[in-house]
Amino acid sequence: MNRPLTSCAITGPLKSAAPDFAEIASSLLYQSGALGMKIETTENCSNNAALSFEFKTPHTTPITCNVTRWGDSSKQASVTENIMQAACGLMSVHGRASGGSQPLGLNYISTLTAALALQGGISASIGQLRGLSVSNSDVSMASAALLSMGQYIAGATASESHESPRPSHVPQSACLPFISLDGVIFELETLDAGPWQKFWSEIGVSSTVAGKGWTAFLLRYAKAISPLPDELFNAISNITYHRISQICARTGMAICPVRSINDRAQDEDSRHVWLQGPWEFLFETRLKNGWDGWSSRSTGNLPLSGLTVIESCRRIQGPLAGHLLALLGAEVIRIEPPGGDPLRGMPPMAGDCSARFDALNRFKTIREVDIKSLAGQTEVKELVQRADVFLHNWAPGKAVLLNLDHEDLAATNPSLIYAYAGGWATDSATHSPSSQMPGTDFMAQAYSGIAKKIAETSDTRGGSLFTILDVLGGVVAAQGITIALLNRCMNNMSAKVTSSLMSAATLLCADDFQRLYALPNSGPASKSIIDAIYATKRGEIAVECRDLKTAVRLAEALGAAIVIEEDNFQDCLSDWFLSRTADEWAGILEHAGVPSAVVIEDLADLQTMAHLQSTLTPGAYTKVNSPWSFK
After folding, report:
1. Of 103, 133, 313, 499, which residue is least crowded by CB atoms under 10 Å?
2. What band does 294 get if pLDDT is binned at 50, 70 and 90?
3. Euclidean distance between CA atoms 543 and 530, whole angstroms
4. What is the pTM of this model?
C-alpha cells in the first residue's frame, strides 16, 4: 500500500471543528490518513466563520487552506449538509425522478468540499515548488456544490431550448431501479441499443415500447430522469431475479442487485480499499537522469500553469478531472475521435456546442486522433513525449490493445504521470467485479452500497439519477493526479495513479466502514432533531435543527407554542410554515440562527442569488467558476 505523502502534514482543528464544518473535517482526517500524512490537531479558536488548516511539506512554506460556507463573506448563515443541498439545487435534481425535492442522504457536499480543499493545498505547494508566490488556498461549500451541478446548470440555462424544472409527481412503481417478482431490487445497464432491444423482446415487450424505453433510459445521465413506459416495469415485475439474470446473460444486458454497505464490507477487497483510500499509486524508481524540468517553472498565476495534460476520456468522470486540472492552470489537450465527440451535439445547445459538453471541456485544446490506428497511436505518443500527465478512462484492457498502457507511455516519457479513471478498481479487464458489468455510475452505486444508503433516506427503491459517483470520481481522479505531481516535484519520481467510481464511493461510506470494522471513534452518527422540507405560501424551505437549543429558537422564530417533545410537533410545524413564503421564512430563520434555505427548484434561479454571484458566470449558459481561490 503506497502512501505518497508520508513526509507531509496537515495541521488544524480537525477534531474540534465548528458544527457546520464537522463532516468536512471528518473527511479531511480520513483522506489525510489514507495518504500517510502526519495529522496535527489543534483546538478550534472560536472561528465559526471558516475551517482553516495548514498543509505542510518539507520543501515549502505552509499553505493556509480556508473552507467557508458560501464564498461570500457578507453571508454567514449557518448551514448543514442538507441545507446546502437545498440551496444549490442538488435536492431538486436528485428528486426529479420522483417529482419532489429530496436530500441525498449522504454527506456528499461535505466530502466534495474536503477533497477540493485538500487538493487546493497540494496544488498550491506544487505552485511554490515551481516558483509561484502562493500561500493561501480558499474553497467554499457552495462552490463545491455548484461544481457538482455544473452540467445540470448548463442544461437549465442554455440560451437555446433550455430545460424546464422538475416534472410533476412520479409514482414509485415507475421509478428506477427495477424490482423482480421475488422482491430483488436491481439495476440494468447497457451502453448500446442492441442488447436493450433483445432483452425486452425476450421478456415479451414490443419493439416499439422498448424503443421508447431506450430513449428514456438514455436520459438518466443527462437529465437525472428516466420516464420509462409502464409496460417495462409491469413485464419485469412478473419474472424472478434468477430468470432475469439468465435473460441478461443471453442478450448482453448487465445486471446488478442493489447491495447494502454490509454486503460491500464482506467483499474481499473492501477493507483494503477503505484503508488505502480512493487512489492507488504505483511509483517508479527515481528517474535515472533526473527530471529535465521542461515544465518545472510556473508560467502563470495558477499552480499548474506550464504543465501539460493529455486527456482521452468520455462522458463525465474523466472529462471533469481534466476540467479541474485546467482550472488549476494546466494546458489540457483533449483527444477526440475523427469528427469530434458525438456528445458535442447533445441538446440543449449553446451556440454550436452542447451546453453540458462545454461545461466540462471549455478550457481544453482539441486534437482529433484515431487512436485505433497505428498513425494515431504514434501521434498520441508524440504528444506524451512533452507532457506531464496522461489521463484516460477507457474500458478495462483497452489501453493494452491500443499499445498505450502505462508501460508503453512510460517508455516514451519516463517522467510521465499516467492516470486511469475507471469504473471499477483497475484498468486490467481481469480484475473487474464482473466482466459483463459496465463501470457506470448507476451500476457502481448499486454494487458499492451507495444506492441502498440513499434509498433508506429517500424512502425509494434505489440510488440517485444525479450522477453522484461520476462527479466525485472526477474530483478524486484530479486529486490523485495532483498528489502524484507533488510527489514528482519532491522526490523526482514518476507514477501511475488509478482511481475509480467504486473507490470514490468509499469516500462516501468511510464512517460506515469504520463502524462496521469496529474501529476506535466509531460510535453511532448523531441525528438532527428536525431535518425536513416544508411547503410554504410560495415555494419550499429546508430546515434543520441539530439540537434542542436550535429547535427552541425555531419555535420562537415561528411565534408558535410548539412542544418539541410531542409526537405531532412536525405536523404543527408544517401548518405554521404555510403562513409565509419560503423567502420570508429564510430571512426570519437566518436572523434567528436556524439553518435553513429556500429549496431551489429551477436551477436558472441560482444565477439570481446574490451570495452565489462569485461562483457563477452568465452567458450563453451559466458557467460554474473554479472552486479555488489562490493568493
Report:
1. 133
2. very low
3. 7
4. 0.95
